[in-house]
Amino acid sequence: MTTENANLVRSNIINTYSITAHDSETGQVGVAVQTHQLGVGNRVPWAKPGVGAVATQSLVNVGYGPEGLRLMEQGKSPQEAIAILTAADDRAFHRQVGMVSADGRAAAFTGEMCIANAGHHAGDGYTVHANMMANNTVISAMRQGYEITSGDLAARLMGALHAAEEEGGDIRGMQSAALLIVPPGGADVPEWATVYDLRVDEHARPLDELARLVSMRRAALLAAEGEAAFHSGDRDRAMHLWQQARELSPEQEELAFWQVMTLADEGNDVPTAAALFNSVFTDRTDRDQWLQLILRLEEARLVQREGAAQALVSAIRG
After folding, report:
1. Grouped pLDDT means (10 residues each) for the chain, 318 residues
2. How far is Cα 52 from Cα 73, in angstroms, rounded to an integer?
3. Which residues touch 124 (CB under 8 Å, ≥6 apart)?
4. Residue 121 CA, distance from chain mean position
5. H or E element in which residue 30 lies
6. Comparing C-alpha atoms, which of 275, 274, 309 is closest to residue 294?
7. Which DSSP symbol is given to 16?
8. Secondary structure in 3-state letters for 174-197
9. Do 159 and 149 form a contact (C-beta atoms < 8 A)?
10. How much is the pTM?
């Protein structure tokens, strides 16, 4: 190997632990990953609605991501897709990859020259993989972490990552993490649609930060579900979901703000909207800026009911 080629290979070393999984209840597929390297989210995780998910790592061949998805979209199983990719790769002995299809089939591969401790496991609808681990028990810990964690797919993926880290994780430590989940496919689902698409590019405790972002995103999903319920005429359910979202992520005042606007404009309920605004934005130094935004929305014709914005501002100010 020339010095130039050696340097190129070293620049592509993504030694890490990751998981791909399919949720049989929702049809979602996803990937989660952590490594001691900057910006792992731009290389390892790949997923496409209605197709599947891929994690490509070790001396990473980024092409395994899009090509693996393309092969599965053509009808290849994860096992067949991996076989095709590795057969065409003269450095397959340094690659590691896991794939899960939209129907829950799963397969993984670890080249014989991946840096120890390295290994993988393909379970029922999921795969876990790791290399350059501090201990050879990380894979079994990830399996258990995924299988015993309750909640949505994001929670279970995070359970696997936390289990890996608790078992020793990457021998070098932590630096970046990412989580990508896409919805099931369908005629009305664009190929770029995501449920979770979160990255922590550099952090002393990337898994803790990723968990915080997952919680914020889950709150946003609850808020969106509440808005859909409101539009369908189920106000009580909307109010319940909105409250859950605010309690889950109180730092996201944006969620409360748009709930206020929906109540005042589409709901024609200025008193309730004003009370909610005042409960969230009490004693905030940027309170007047949010009030200005309400009026600007009306100027931009984003408030449907004439006079709703001014009436809301007046009620808020008392």
Report:
1. 42 79 97 95 96 96 97 98 97 96 98 95 97 94 97 98 93 94 92 96 97 98 97 97 97 95 95 96 88 96 94 95
2. 8
3. 104, 106
4. 22
5. strand 29-35
6. 309
7. E
8. CCEEEEEEECCCCCCCCCCCCCEE
9. yes
10. 0.93
